[in-house]
Design a protein that fits this description.
Elements lengths: L10 E4 L2 E4 L2 E14 L2 E14 L3 E5 L6 H9 L6 E6 L2 E2 L7 E5 L10 H12 L5 H14 L15 H14 L4 E5 L7 H17 L5 E5 L3 H7 L2 E5 L7 E6 L8 H4 L3 H14 L10
Helix pairs in contact: 2-3, 2-4, 3-4, 4-5
Length: 285
């Protein structure tokens, strides 16, 4: 009899988080505090989390629970007070082109056309790329979000959903390995939001699921439909991770079908229970 030995990927443990050679982001015992006029305010405390390459993670919790602060440390715009964040094997100390971010308010330059908004980002992030390749990237990503016919419009001439598509196309155009979405669909109507969810997953699939996505949201249904895991945050200040919930739904997911799935309903109920203490007026004392 011949025995075979499977060599496992090396594993490193950081205070509860587990990193291996498939880890894209590793948050190690992170605490972030800010000075305020009335003293030190600690937004998040002792956060440890590992995110695999190609994974979609949703961060949910009540307002003030540190979701955006956590996102800011991954982007490099917020510095840790203690602990560290490692992305693609490097400790994050500042923003970088390997991390694209999309905000709720679109952050488009109002005096530039749709085309120019994306080209300027590509030109800044990919300085050494020939101009012809930069133009090809802009065209490719605008076509992927169905906005090529609107390339010469100014942001003020676009609907909210179209502006958000421009912001997402801009983030994808610089080809980051990590995409950070900070409540990007919060201001959209239900129909536009639903369409944007599908567009985002199309882009992610076209990329062969190599991009790692972290999305901040207040929407339980959005978190379940988009993500592989949902990280539920405790209330701040000094917010911590309350629980991490795996989403047991195979991909691709159909929005109309999964709402009737027993696993979906059980996951939905669990997340609601983690987030909400009172479910009716009878619960209020």
């Amino acid at each position: 009899m011949v025995s075979t030995i499977t060599k496992e990927a090396p594993v490193l443990k950081f205070n509860g988080s587990i990193a291996n050679d498939n880890t894209c982001i590793d948050i190690d015992n992170l605490t972030v505090s800010f000075k305020t006029p009335i003293g030190i305010y600690t937004a998040v405390k002792d956060i440890s989390l590992s995110v695999k390459k190609g994974e979609i993670i949703a961060l949910i919790g009540h307002s003030g629970c540190g979701k955006s602060t956590l996102m800011g440390t991954i982007s490099g715009m917020v510095k840790p007070t203690s602990g560290k964040v490692v992305a693609n094997g490097n400790i994050i100390t500042k923003p970088g082109p390997d991390r694209g971010i999309v905000f709720q308010n679109y952050s488009l330059l109002p005096w530039l056309t749709v085309y120019k908004n994306i080209y300027e980002a590509v030109d800044a992030a990919l300085k050494n790329l020939p101009a012809t390749e930069k133009k090809a990237l802009v065209e490719k990503n605008l076509k992927m979000v169905n906005l090529w016919p609107h390339k010469d419009k100014l942001p003020g001439q676009l609907s909210g959903g179209m502006k958000q598509r421009v912001a997402i196309a801009r983030a994808f155009a610089i080809n980051p390995s990590i995409l950070l979405l900070d409540e990007p669909f919060g201001a959209l109507d239900a129909l536009t939001k639903s369409n944007m969810h599908v567009e985002l997953l199309k882009l992610w699939n076209l990329d062969n699921r190599e991009k790692t996505i972290i999305i901040v949201t207040h929407d339980v249904e959005e978190a379940i439909f988009l993500s592989d895991r949902v990280v539920v945050m405790n209330n701040g200040p000094a917010a911590t991770i309350k629980e991490i919930v795996d989403i047991p739904l195979p991909r691709p997911r159909n929005k109309k079908e999964i709402v009737h799935d027993a696993a979906y309903m059980a996951t939905h109920d669990k997340l609601l229970s983690l987030l909400i203490d009172k479910f009716s007026i009878n619960d209020i004392h």
